[in-house]
Amino acid sequence: KAGVTQTPRYLIKTRGQQVTLSCSPISGHRSVSWYQQTPGQGLQFLFEYFSETQRNKGNFPGRFSGRQFSNSRSEMNVSTLELGDSALYLCASSLRTRVGREKLFFGSGTQLSVL
Amino acid sequence: SQQGEEDPQALSIQEGENATMNCSYKTSINNLQWYRQNSGRGLVHLILIRSNEREKHSGRLRVTLDTSKKSSSLLITASRAADTASYFCATDAASLITQGGSEKLVFGKGTKLTVNP
Q1: pLDDT tens-digit map of B81-99
Q2: How wide is the angle at C-alpha A76 spanned by C-alphas A56 and A30, nearest 5°?
Q3: Torsional class of A32: left (φ above 0), alpha (ψ -120 to 50), beta (otherwise)
Q4: What integer pLDDT is reported at residue B56 of this predicted model?
């Protein structure tokens, strides 16, 4: 079974631009969660999608948004990029929602650099 | 904000020694998980321990959970250079304000373990 696939692996953008990151979960997994990882703040929960519905959301501004498609693939979008958005963005999938009770499978992440 | 806090922040040991990492958390939990991350890569699930369990083993890993102290420890026995990585504890935190009340997994800031050959 293929693992969680995130694309692209690296991305360089400038302030003010927008970016879209993609995540393909493990086949059969219906829950996708997104995390932002920075050296200062660690891993911060962004949001979780299950069956195309956002089930939970972290404390991030509205510039951060996401969606999930009927095949469980997910995208997250960051508009009007700021320097502080530079981070490793990680996607994780699990079989079911209620992810606190589930083992998460992570992708390798997208390293976003905002210049 | 982080639910779990790992201690120590960094740990350096020699191959063959045991490594112990601790995690403290703030609120009641259903489960606690430990993950490992090699530099700049995704996290890999190591072990999940439920709130009604006190100890769990998986290969060279031993996890304990003390819900009265709101703490957990991860012990890696007979460490190897390949164990060099960051280790994170993660706890579930029921959200009371989002529709559906879906839980999320909240991570600590991790312990960076270096195993010297």
Answers
A1: 999 999 999 988 654 444 4
A2: 55
A3: beta
A4: 97
Across the interface, of A43, A50, A55, the residue whose CB is closest to B88 is A43
Minimal Cβ distance to A100: which of B44, B104, B109 = B104
Instruction: State the pairing for strand pair A74-78/A64-68.
Output: antiparallel
pLDDT confidence tier of residue B68, bands split at 50, 70 and 90: very high
The token duo for B10 is 């960094």
Residues 27-86 of B with CB under 8 A from A: 29-31, 33, 35, 40-45, 48
Collapsing DSSP to helix, strand or coil, B70 comes out as coil
Please tell me the distance from the alpha carbon of residue A89 to that of residue A21, in angstroms, as a whole number.
8
Q: What distances in angstroms separate CA A77 from CA A14, A19, A61, B4, one per listed residue?
A: 15, 6, 12, 28
CA-to-CA distance for A43 and B108, rounded, in angstroms?
Answer: 7
Closest CA to B71 of B106, B103, B111, B29: B29
Counting Cα atoms < 13 Å in the Cβ hemisphere of B44 gives 11
